[in-house]
Amino acid sequence: MHDTQKQQVTQPVTPHPDAQLLPTKEAAFVIGCSVFFLRNSRSTAFIFGVNAPPYEKRGNRCFYRRKRLDEWNEQFKEQDSTANITAA
Questions:
Q1: Which residues contact 30 (CB under 8 A, 6 or more apart)?
Q2: Taking burial as the number of CB atoms within 10 A of a residue's CB, which of 4, 10, 54, 77 is the most buried?
């Protein structure tokens, strides 16, 4: 390195949690299914009887946003019986 050149030091960039992209294998773990089942849902558009989670194509690979997977999983949260809900 020449004396006139300065080495540029950059801090590693930590992605914002909302922008975290997960490969299919990790996404399958997050939603609780097999990799095959999640891959298959991209062509059938359904998984567990509902619309499959959205994915993004990057080259020949597919990725899932963690935030979108968490939102998608919300529909499966345990719910009270509808008998316990009173009309407003």
A1: 22, 64, 66, 69, 70, 73
A2: 54
Q: What is the CATH number of domain 19-74?
A: 1.10.10
DSSP string, the chain: --TT--PPP-PPPPPPGGG-EEEHHHHHHHHTS-HHHHHHHHHHSEETTEEPPP-EEETTEEEEEHHHHHHHHGGGS----GGGPPP-
Helix axes 24-31, 35-44, angle to 10 degrees: 100
What digits encode the pLDDT tens for the residues 9-55? Answer: 555 555 555 468 999 999 999 999 999 999 999 999 999 899 999 99
Q: Where are the domains of the chain?
A: 19-74
Phi, psi (deg, nearest 5) at residue 65:
-80, 130
